[in-house]
Amino acid sequence: MSTGAGKISQAISLAVATLAAGIMPAPLERDPARDEILRKMAAVAGEQGWGKTVLLQVAGPDADLLFPGGSAELVEAWFDLCDRDMLEAMWDTEEESRLSQRVRQALLFRLPVDEAVRSATRKGLSVLLAPCEGKALRRSMMRTINAIWQAAQDDSSGLTYVTKRLSLGGVYASVLLYWLARGDNEATLAAFVDRRLADVLRFGRIKARMGGLPFMARA
After folding, report:
1. Domains and CATH numbers, the chain
2. Which one of 48, 151, 168, 186 has the fewest CB atoms closer than 10 angstroms to its CB?
3. Domain COQ9 C-terminal spans what residues (predicted)?
4. pTM assigned to the model
5. What are the pLDDT digits (tens) for 53-90?
6. Residue 25 in contact with residue 16, Cβ under 8 Å?
7. Please, what's the b/e burial string for 118-145 (b: 16 or more CB within 10 A of its CB; e: otherwise)?
8. What is the separation of C-alpha 167 from the centre of its chain, rounded to a whole number of angstroms?
9. Residue 37 in contact with residue 66, Cβ under 8 Å?
């Protein structure tokens, strides 16, 4: 999994760099029929995978017509559905006053302590880690990182927009990998998220203090 972890981290880094440049992937096709199929697939994908045979078994003989791109399209669309579920959960939750806490909520909604979701995500990532599917993996990471900022209701722009996405990319990469490996306990997962966010906030405060020093100003 170490090779896969490296590829995931690299994909997230590329996704963040692309977002920072102001580029977003094209919207995916969304409709209730596709969403229903994706939920059925996700329920069994942890054991059976995201292949065409499984798709036809769980969703009927014509289900593949809704996903002509095959397994990669299925996984990319399911990740997008998970992003939308996270956004909906955030809208239904009492809003936190601090941005960092809103980001924390979004991360925990996006990566729930649910073995079926984790298993389906592992199988999905194995599809997108194939050499020919790197773009689909990067697009998925871009949508998720952007959706987390949307869920946190962040309206920054300019350099702040860029630096926040760079910071979140590092946080999301580490939290995602932790969740895939050991995300079966809500308390320990939340504690890991808290530590990662605390690291970012601590670094931000140090950087702000150093920014007032003469040599940093010249730099």
Report:
1. 2-218 (1.10.357.10)
2. 186
3. 139-204
4. 0.89
5. 999 999 999 999 999 999 999 999 999 999 999 999 99
6. no
7. bbbbebbbebbbeeebeebbbbbbbbbb
8. 14
9. yes
